[in-house]
Amino acid sequence: MAYTELKSDKLFEMLKTHLATDAGKEIIKKIGLVYRINIAPKKIGVDEVSYVVDLKKGEVTKGQYEGGKPDATLSFNDDDFIKVISGKMNPQIAYMKGAVKVKGNLNAAQKFTPDIFPKPAKM
Question: Which strand (E) or helix (H) includes residue 11?
Fold first, then answer.
């Protein structure tokens, strides 16, 4: 299947830039975990695009994690990811509704909050 651009691609690019700032460095120091985020265009588990958000090194990369196992893997559909990151959907409610699937350390997953991302001016 040909790659479909996701709305969340832009957010990951913004996060990559944000982690290089002083505020981003504080997030890295505070959290220090590695996340694999799977984003599906429509249905979780179908045609997912993976991102690695490494909050140990301050890196955001597209693709599989090469450094072993991430602390937590979160899977969303594109629209629900945008809702969670923009604050329109509470991450815990998203989990209870099945809008996010979590594998790995649940405590680590709970630290992946919208506060990690810079606030977009306009989506």
Answer: helix 8-18
